[in-house]
Amino acid sequence: MLYFARWKIVLIILVLVAGVIVTLPNLFSAATVQAWPSFMPKRQIVLGLDLRGGAHLLLQVERDSLVKDRLQTLVGDVRQTLRDERIGYRNLRSRGESVTFTLREPSEADRVMQLLRPLTNPVQSGLFGQGSVSEVEVSRDGAQVTLNLTEAGLEERTRSAVEQSLSVLGRRINALGTTEPTIQREGDDRILVQVPGLEDTSRLKEILGQTAKMTFHLECPEGDVVSAQQGRPPAGCEIVEPADPNDGPVLVESRARLSGDDLVDAQPAFDQQTNTPIVTFRFNSRGGSIFGQLTQQNVGRRFAVVLDNKYITAPVIRSPILGGSGQIEGNFTVESAQNLAVLLRAGALPADLTIVEERTVGPSLGRDSIAAGEIAALIGTAGVVVFMVLVYGLFGVFANFALICNIVLLLALLTLLQATLTLPGIAGIVLTVGMAVDANVLIFERIREEAKLGRSAINAIEAGFSRALGTILDANITTLIAAFALFALGSGPIRGFAVTLALGILTTVFTAFVLTRFIVAVWVRSQRPKTVPI
Amino acid sequence: MPFRIVPDDTTVPFMRFARWGFPASVVAMVASLVLFFVVGLNLGIDFRGGTLIEVQSQSGAVDIGSIRQTLQPLELGDFEVQGFGSGNEAVIRIATQPGGDEAQQAAVQKVQDALGFDAYNYRRVEVVGPRVSGELAETGTIAVLVTLVGVLLYIWFRFEWQFAIGAIASLLHDVILTIGFFTITQIEFNLSSIAAILTIVGYSLNDTVVIFDRVREMLRKFKQTPIRGIIDLSVNQTLSRTLLTSLTTLIALAALFFFGGAVIRSFTAAMIWGVFIGTYSTVFIAAPMLIFFNLRPEKVAAPEAAKKPAAS
């Protein structure tokens, strides 16, 4: 146990030196480290949001909004199909997660089922394309036809909605100009957004929370708002409420002539005459020509710009707009104009997102936490170090050296793995300090016992190390199980705690069992002790 | 020069004490459970949903009364304002607002509008919506259960089944008494409390395994000694290690408690409690279980050639 092959000695020393080098950058500020020559390591421990400050938002894709969207399209598709084939129907409507209608001529049912078949065609699902799901099931009960959205189809929609939302949110957040935001999928239908260093989250929330589905509608050719509000709006028309509560509702065609998808650019600007904030936009070529035709043919009619089911502005078209670009004059502030431009550029979200969890930490609290954690770590370590020397004398010094190396290696591992250090993570380190010496205590106590049994010093030391090993392993593996459970089921800060706890166990076993043994071996060799000084 | 924390050849008749300790623990566990069901935990927003806002006064000591008055007219439902950390900070807790996730966000906005950004610095805003809070409670419970099962399997694999039962009994004891601790102190129970429970489980287990290891070794060495004597011997032999490790861990935890800042103080308090009961439960719960489940008679007398000895 006390003999070390030369290559092992070299390896131990290399590990320690590497540990020190990797840990080194953490002692300096990021700016200082960046100025170091290129051969020096520059990686520092990644601090969690609770230590560096920042926003953590958990967003959920609203399944209901997806279902609603899906049903709306489905109703449209069915209507189109039936109309094209001149098939009579009534009561076409959506209910729950299905669309139903009744045929006027039950005899046409078979033909209708045939015609609706394409709607049930499976769509490709999954990245690997091996699975394909039908989104719609058609069934018939006499003259009544029901189209059901399938569970698998909705799951697939949710999955792809999350996927699309990730990139849309990415574009939106990048427009805020913050550094290193992370946007990642969480579970089936959630997205985790983390923006370090952001203190005022209200703008972030405004930008993330909006679906930003923009559509352009012409005013309804017949009927007026008042009678529509009392009775029913004319076929194909609907009432749209204003975004600004000072305006009144307008009656527009349900059909959108153009949508935000047709935009290629949007910028905040100022109106040259009134000097109020506006948003200018440019259509792509297809959108531009539709817009041109539209404005040419409908001079004098109103034209509503609708954002998330509320209209921002509904000006009267005075003259054809042919260049493919235009401007929106809402009741904007400078900031809301900027936000809208960002949203239009980034595109619409495929579904509504709701913030289901928020954790924001201001930079001052983060700084205080780091400072408090550092002080606690220093005092805790100092206390343990003094205690060990008091109890074990020279061997306590050995244990302390191992303890310091343990901390250095733990920090080095955290740096190398770029694992996130959180406040509970710091607690994990301090706790590791307290518990790490356990391994040494086990060994030393064992040596003491063996010496008491009358063994020679070297024999006792040998036996102490080898007999304590099994205990140390058993004891640490069980703790490791707890750490894994914490990691698997915890989130954010808790996960950080689990990581430091688990890494701490690894470094502890190494330092106690390899390093301390090595030091003791060197000591035994140079001093040739007759008795064990513990 | 080094000193001994426990004199050599200490022979404390632990198992005689366990005759009292064991029933006392059962009573304490029942009491904890009763308290848990009658009084309940002071659940934090992680599990109950709601909003927590930590504000720091920009002008010295924070005036809790004035914050309360400012928030009163906002119709936030149940809310409380408490001093936190040093004298300059306060924590505002708001119960879940009716009206789903968006309503929670609106509440934060209302508070920030009312208090303004000049007089106060918003150190921390945590909003846990009604949908998430239920899940967090669920995963927390699962985490604790998964750990217990994992440990059960590991110890079963490495020792005899009686050891596994003993370890699990002592872990359940620790978990239940820690919940009792949270109920009595009414310290907020949140996600980090779950982490504290799991760490306590890890620590207590560490302690249990060390003594079990020794028990196993002694069982092999003294084939005629009754189990009671074996346990007493093992606990005494490892006593100084038990105390030393508890002390170093407590030193580290005390440093965290006093200097680590207010955010993790409740976590540390629970851990300190855990070190005590974890150490206690090894001797007074885990070990007596070996007697109770008749570890000795015919079982160990046979040589264990099949099992690979770990500690010898």
Automatic annotation (TrEMBL), chain A:
Transmembrane spans: 375-394, 401-419, 425-444, 465-489, 501-524
Keyword set, alphabetical order: Cell inner membrane, Cell membrane, Membrane, Protein transport, Translocation, Transmembrane, Transmembrane helix, Transport
GO process annotations (BP): intracellular protein transmembrane transport; protein targeting; protein transport by the Sec complex
Annotated localization: Cell membrane
Domain Protein translocase subunit SecDF P1: 162-218
GO cellular component: plasma membrane
SUPFAM superfamilies named in the record: Multidrug efflux transporter AcrB transmembrane domain (SSF82866)
InterPro entries tied to this protein: SecD, SecD/SecF_arch_bac, SecD/SecF_CS, SecD_1st, SecD_SecF_C, SecD_SecF_C_bact, SecDF_P1_head
Domain Protein export membrane protein SecD/SecF C-terminal: 352-523
Lineage: superkingdom: Bacteria
KW Ribonucleoprotein (keyword) present: no
Single GO molecular function: protein-transporting ATPase activity
Residue intervals of the SecDF P1 head subdomain domain: 244-351
Protein function: Part of the Sec protein translocase complex. Interacts with the SecYEG preprotein conducting channel. SecDF uses the proton motive force (PMF) to complete protein translocation after the ATP-dependent function of SecA.
Subunit relationships: Forms a complex with SecF. Part of the essential Sec protein translocation apparatus which comprises SecA, SecYEG and auxiliary proteins SecDF-YajC and YidC.
PANTHER family xrefs: PROTEIN TRANSLOCASE SUBUNIT SECD, PROTEIN-EXPORT MEMBRANE PROTEIN SEC
UniProt record similarity statement: Belongs to the SecD/SecF family. SecD subfamily.
Listed HAMAP family: SecD_B
Protein name per the record: Protein translocase subunit SecD
Organism this protein belongs to: Afifella marina DSM 2698
Species classification: Bacteria, Pseudomonadati, Pseudomonadota, Alphaproteobacteria, Hyphomicrobiales
Automatic annotation (TrEMBL), chain B:
Record-annotated membrane-spanning stretches: 20-45, 139-157, 164-185, 191-212, 243-264, 270-293
Membrane topology: Multi-pass membrane protein
Keyword Protein transport: yes
GO biological process: intracellular protein transmembrane transport; protein targeting; protein transport by the Sec complex
A GO term, aspect molecular function: protein-transporting ATPase activity
Keywords: Cell membrane, Membrane, Protein transport, Translocation, Transmembrane, Transmembrane helix, Transport
One Gene Ontology CC term in the entry: plasma membrane
Coarse class of the protein's main subcellular location: membrane
Subcellular location: Cell membrane
Task performed by this protein: Part of the Sec protein translocase complex. Interacts with the SecYEG preprotein conducting channel. SecDF uses the proton motive force (PMF) to complete protein translocation after the ATP-dependent function of SecA.
Complex formation: Forms a complex with SecD. Part of the essential Sec protein translocation apparatus which comprises SecA, SecYEG and auxiliary proteins SecDF-YajC and YidC.
HAMAP family: SecF_B
PANTHER family assigned to the protein according to its UniProt record, in alphabetical order: PROTEIN TRANSLOCASE SUBUNIT SECF, PROTEIN-EXPORT MEMBRANE PROTEIN SEC
Homology family: In the N-terminal section; belongs to the SecD/SecF family. SecD subfamily.
Protein's recorded name: Protein-export membrane protein SecF
Organism in which the protein naturally occurs: Afifella marina DSM 2698
